Amino acid sequence: MTHDFDAWRARSPFYDETHDQLAQSVRTFIEREVEPYIDQWEADRELPRELHKKAAEAGILGLRYPEEYGGHSEGFDAFHGLVLTEELARPGAGGLGASLMTHGIGLPPILAMGSEELKQRIAPPVLAGEKIIALGITEASGGSDVAKLRTTAKRDGDDYIVNGGKMFITSGMRADYLTTAVRTGGDGAGGISLLLIEMDRKGVSRTRLEKMGWHCSDTASIHFDDVRVPAENLIGPENGGFMGIMRNFNSERLGMAMGCCAFARVCLREAADYAAQRETF
Prior knowledge:
281 residues; alpha+beta; Butyryl-CoA Dehydrogenase, subunit A, domain 2; four-stranded antiparallel beta sheet; 40% helix; globular
């Protein structure tokens, strides 16, 4: 029984030779820079920061991001992004794509809603692999109901003072920046804003969380105790952050679905290989 990881693309009208070329390019990178080390990274419970720089040099981090911020989007479509997702699944470690590509959930709100100054300050070092950005939405009191988050950001002159916490934050231990959902107004979705918080600010603390899987993806609980953040770090209008959060969910869910399909193929391949080698009775 044989399994061709690539064969299914030939049956789809949305893929052409450029998607196959991208798959082979990413696969070469994974075979050289990831597969020999992934077991150790799983044991270490995180990816080395150097991998982000290597992935940036290989064009992986900047795929489908604007050229003016260090990315490359010309000629690439959503299906190229899905090809990247499936190739990151081939080593069979779910935390690899989650952690290496965490900018895929932390950076888009800034590019969609942030000031030009904020884009220029944050996006280039992230896409160069020099800085890591994460997304802080989920809280200990609730996850999927974003409209009920409790972390507050109160205006004080030219700053916001942030208090509260976030839970189960991917790349939370290594992140330099956190795109953070905060409550700046009243109850419900209409009182939520997005704020970029530098993680070395006074009053920020974080605790590593252990998980059943995704070991090489560091996950954290983050606490904010009177953290002073410049108002210029506001992403979009005050009390207008809810839609900024929602607009990114579609692409996130699509990527997760592709990851599930790719991991299923990895599982099938490994199960078939084992069945062919196993000796019984």
